[in-house]
Specification:
This protein is α+β, with helices and mostly antiparallel strands and 67 residues long. The protein has one domain. Helix content is 39%, strand content 21%. It has 3 helices and 2 strands. A hairpin with a 4-residue loop joins β1 and β2. The longest helix has 12 residues.
């Protein structure tokens, strides 16, 4: 990973990811149950950078970081 990319990855936060997603898809309807009662599962965000397409892929992972 280049030094510049490492600096960018350190500056990424959940808010910036959410804003980027909403700028891409404009809006999304989320069931209130998922927001108010997310459940017992502990998921994390996985953010992967694709240098060829200059894009980020954002997905949910489980507690150990896998898909």
């Amino acid at each position: 990973m280049s030094e510049e990319l490492a600096e960018v990855s350190q500056e990424i936060n959940v808010t910036s990811i959410l804003v980027a997603i909403l700028k891409t898809i404009h809006s999304i309807d989320v069931p209130s149950e998922l927001v108010l009662n997310p459940g017992d599962e502990d998921t994390g965000l996985i953010v992967s950078y694709n240098q060829e397409s200059n894009t980020f892929t954002i997905s949910l992972g489980d507690t150990n970081g896998s898909n």
